[in-house]
Write a structure and sequence with these properties.
Chains A, B: Belongs to the long-chain O-acyltransferase family. The structure is a homodimer of 461-residue chains. Chain A has 461 residues and is α+β, with helices and mostly antiparallel strands. Chain A contains 13 helices and 16 strands. Chain A has 2 domains: 169 residues, Chloramphenicol Acetyltransferase (2-Layer Sandwich); 256 residues, Chloramphenicol Acetyltransferase. In chain A, helix 5 runs antiparallel to helix 6, helix 9 crosses helix 10 and helix 10 crosses helix 13.
Chain lengths: 461, 461
């Protein structure tokens, strides 16, 4: 069709930032357990069905107007009249033994492949050969089409909370539901929400980076807020290669909350503590632990002091990961103190103040995407750690029960590791994603985070 | 190490030509049959072994000096001091039922992924899950590192002609053997040999395309040779996308020779006839068959009239595929007549004449790689069909018998289909590779070529 949908400036930024090394697609990985009456050749039959019925609704049928000039200022979305469903929906399989390790390797590879901009920029892979007759869905979408949180909500439209429902249409064959649109407007503390804030701060200019330079320029404006802590240089804050490593870990929320409460911390604090413990141990093994503690940036919901209605604003805080402290309990206490202080500071601000502060924090990360900037623009923090709400009910794909919901976010130049956590009913699902070359053995972060939880639990006995 | 090995101008051309859509890597696919005593978990144990012993010899340890500026005139090869063997040697698996179709789909996808220029530009994939306990090796290497024929010879160093030999080292762990180097110098009629000729014609200039323009400019020089036939425009002579389709077919050489002989043709003629029949049928189904016959360019060995020693020269001929003729026997006879005429013409030339003619034929294909040239530079032919000699003995990978040896060559802008054929002992192995979008249902070429052989055989009864 001839209609062109303009890109909003933030989406455009994600296109303009795309390089061979920094690929701006996000994803999710979900393993599924078969029902007792699982039909043999379930996935084969599914593909037959998919080939027959290729009804596809917006945004899944949208492709770039000028795919050869990705960063064109006239870029927009047009409908793909030759939608090739077999390209977008794929079957894959795991080599034996089909364990979590092999799943991690395959998904790391799939996520290292760039998106084809001549088509609607998404793919979904049904991965068979997981132990126990299980399969997994790996989903990948370019951030310019939908952000991770909205994409996840749209994907869920292809799942059902009813294990008996065996004819749920594929997510791309569902008409855009109002419910989903509304969900995407919730004030969820995501990285995208923060980038939107930074963009609003930058005003109506299409050129975010130029405006951010202004925000950073000292003296000129009333930047009286706390300047970002100086983060130490580290192996995760270098140029990155195009290859990724991905690892996952799942924890019961109750178990995490119990430990957090025992130390008078929050769920976010324990997320930081487990990430911190993993990073400390891995970096020690790599002989690359900085003397100064690593710092993390967290998107959070904050109640501003000038909002009488008690509404929330999305903001960002900077927390110490206390990776210089050897004792796990002391380290956890230092993290708790650090986030508490940061939140106290933020909640003393007006809504506008929170926005300004967040834009300031985001600026170095966005500036680092200018070619040659990495190493010159000092990182304001070492790693982004996001904690995003996910599905509250168990979900099923035609009777197969979704076991977990692991996010894959975007490592970028200068920020070669991202830790995103999504809740799913009574579990917290960690997705560790990083650059294959600058952070070897990333998979160990998943193992070490579990050990870290056991350590904190044992210290309570 | 600090030593830089300069690229030769032809290799440099393959780097300079690399785009998101035209990827200059070649490959091969080989299925293997297990021995009676096949160890369980053969491939798993192989990977364990590979991880322990990462001895890697030239050229497999060479990476580009300036990977971020691919077409740098100062480009060269340097040794990779951080060779990451797990990146280059990979395990994959097929979804059920693990048949040839699923193998084709997986290899098409793997071949659609671009090579990482920050590492030695090659990958080898051990693909398990083929029916009957079989596995396949898919190998991929950038043409700038080695050409397809040399690459295949080097790969063979990791195979054995002895089914009892179970400890053959991996191909990259073999010291470069003199034997292999010599083999690569044989006068084999490959596309690469032709491009080398075209390059020699262009003189010592690094800028091949500029020199070729001169070769094409009429009048100035003594180009009295037959001008290329004008090929019809067709769907396989358009811009291409970055995605590939790959299909394979294997024929007993005796069967092909019997049919060829019965019609007084050559093995090359029957290769053309089967390709022609497939293209005609597929294009009819797509409602895209040109009125005028499609033409093919074939690299061939020719005995020049001025070589008293009876030596061979590599040249190229242009043959009609006679796709305008409905009757298969008449079509075959027209093809035979066409190649006979072309060869007669070529063998009447001096060695220099053959070189000039070949350079002339190659020029439009090389010119078509200049951005924007496709559609303006008229194709001299529609498709390249190469027939390359392969292994003469059955080969084994640690007791697993190699069943076939299917080449994957390079579709380029304006030439969206390539048919390369390799002999393996008593079989001829077809590799059909094309652009996924401009040539839908390419897989049918494999099916139709088999039907075409049966048709010609039946006509003889």
């Amino acid at each position: 069709m001839g209609t062109v949908k303009r890109l909003n400036p933030l989406d455009w930024t994600f296109l303009a930032g795309e390089t061979r090394e920094t690929m701006m697609h996000v994803g999710s990985l979900s393993p599924f357990t078969p029902p007792a009456d699982a039909p043999p050749d379930f996935l084969r039959k599914l593909m037959d069905e998919i080939r027959q019925d290729a009804q596809v609704y917006s945004p899944w049928n949208l492709k770039l107007k000028t795919p050869s000039i990705i960063a064109s200022p006239l870029q927009g979305w047009v409908e793909d009249d030759n939608f090739d469903v077999e390209y977008h929906v794929r079957r894959s399989a795991l080599p034996s033994p089909g364990d979590e390790r092999e799943l991690g390797i395959l998904v790391s590879r799939l996520h290292s492949n760039s998106i084809d901009f001549h088509r609607p920029p998404w793919e979904v892979h049904f991965i068979e050969g997981l132990e126990g007759g299980r399969f997994a869905i790996y989903f990948k979408v370019h951030h310019a089409l939908v952000d991770g949180y909205t994409g996840a909500k749209l994907m869920e439209a292809g799942l059902s909370s009813n294990p008996k429902e065996r004819d749920t249409p594929m997510f791309y064959s569902r008409e855009p539901a109002e419910r989903v649109a509304r969900a995407a407007e919730e004030k969820v503390p995501t990285l995208e929400a923060l980038m939107s804030l930074a963009k609003e701060q930058a005003g109506a200019s299409r050129n975010i980076t130029k405006a951010l330079f202004k925000t950073l320029a000292p003296g000129k404006e009333k930047n009286t807020l706390v300047a970002p802590m100086s983060a130490p240089k580290s192996i995760i804050n270098q140029k990155i290669s195009r290859n990724r490593r991905f690892a996952t870990q799942q924890f019961p929320v109750d178990r995490l909350k119990a430990v957090a409460k025992a130390y008078d911390g929050t769920l976010n604090d324990i997320v930081l503590a487990l990430s911190s413990a993993g990073l400390r141990k891995l970096m020690l093994e790599l002989n690359a632990l900085p003397d100064k503690p690593l710092t993390a940036m967290l998107p959070v919901n904050i109640r501003p002091k000038d909002d009488p209605g008690g509404g929330n604003a999305v903001g960002s805080i900077l927390a110490s990961l206390a990776t210089d402290i050897e004792d796990p309990v002391e380290r956890f206490r230092a993290i708790i103190a650090s986030t508490r202080e940061a939140k106290a500071q933020l909640s003393g601000m007006t809504k506008m103040g929170i926005m300004e502060y967040s834009a300031l924090l985001m600026a170095p990360m966005m500036l680092s995407q200018i070619p040659g900037a990495v190493g010159r623009v000092r990182p304001a923090f070492n790693v982004v750690i996001s904690n995003v709400p996910g599905p509250k009910k168990h979900l099923y794909f035609r009777g197969y029960k979704m076991e977990g919901y692991y996010p894959l976010s975007i490592p970028i130049a200068g920020y070669g590791l991202n830790i995103t956590v999504v809740s799913y009913v009574d579990t917290l699902n960690f997705g560790f994603i990083g650059c294959r070359d600058t952070l070897p053995h990333l998979q160990r972060l998943a193992v070490y985070s579990r050990e870290a939880l056991e350590e904190l639990e044992e210290a309570l006995l």
